[in-house]
Amino acid sequence: MNIVLMGCPGAGKGTQSVKLVKAFELAHISTGDVLRAEIASGSELGNKLGLIVNQGNLVPDEMMVEMLEKIVKDTDKGIIFDGFPRTVPQAKALDAMMQRLGRSITHVIMIDLPQEEVINRICSRRQCKKCGAILSVDLKNPPEKCPSCGGELYTRPDDTCKRAAHRLEVYRQSTLPVKEYYQAGGKYVEVNGNQTPEKVFEDISKILQK
Ligand code: AMP
């Protein structure tokens, strides 16, 4: 099972990936996490990537494909691709790469969310530095610590309300055409993302168990 998990920023791809990894024993490849780790390392490449990612823009396709291939080659398990592909050239490169490796994408799942909800979710998203939990906080009264482990909460630099509209526009222009690419291939399914994370997970699980 090799799954492409699609959805606009804030749709819940990261949250669902954590649940799916546990339930279906999959490897999780989040290109956003890979990029953030490189940025946090302070390397020359990381500094260049930081300028792109923190503005809410997309990293060039060739860099992403090269980065991804190294990780996929090291993974024997089924994979959840979270945040990749984000452009049609990336989707084509992923198909070609999987074929070269004797593998294929088995499911493409879109977590669908109304546009009004997207900005709200991005602005209110916080992540725990300690356990990695992703929370949606009440902006009028945000918690100071992670309710699960007491760790420090932070806002990703690209998760500000200011960046949200731009990221949504990048998504509309570059990533929505990926949906058409996969629809034509017949493996594409949508789930309603405007439900509790538990219900979204239930819906995705049903698709994977068919
Ligand atoms: P995410 O954690 O998936 O929301 O990704 C955070 C940011 O990393 C995105 O807004 C992009 O700047 C960058 N990024 C992640 N995945 C990709 C990708 N497949 N192609 C280009 N840029 C990406």
Description:
It is built from 8 helices and 8 strands, in the order βαβαααβαβαβββαβα. The longest helix has 25 residues, at 161-185. The model has no long low-confidence stretch (mean pLDDT 94). A 5-stranded parallel sheet has the order 2-3-1-4-8, sandwiched between helices. It has helices at residues 13-24, 31-40, 44-53, 61-73, 88-100, 115-123, 161-185, 197-209, and strands spanning 3-6, 27-30, 79-82, 107-112, 125-128, 134-136, 153-154, 188-192. β5 and β6 form a beta hairpin. By secondary structure, it is an alpha/beta fold. Helix content is 50%, strand content 15%.
Question: What are the SSEs and their pairings?
Answer:
Layout: E1 3-6, H1 13-24, E2 27-30, H2 31-40, H3 44-53, H4 61-73, E3 79-82, H5 88-100, E4 107-112, H6 115-123, E5 125-128, E6 134-136, E7 153-154, H7 161-185, E8 188-192, H8 197-209
Helix pairs in contact: 1-8, 2-3, 4-5, 6-7
The chain binds adenosine monophosphate.
Task: Describe the structure in brief.
The chain is an alpha/beta fold and 210 residues long.
Distance between the termini: 12 Å
Structural class: alpha/beta
> How many DSSP E strands?
8
Please provide the ordered H/E string of secondary-structure elements.
EHEHHHEHEHEEEHEH
Mean pLDDT: 94
Helix content: 40-55%
Percent strand equals 15-25%
Number of helices: 8
From the spread of the alpha carbons, the general shape counts as globular
What tags apply to this protein structure?
210 residues; alpha/beta; five-stranded parallel sheet; three-stranded antiparallel sheet; 8 helices; 8 strands; globular; binds adenosine monophosphate
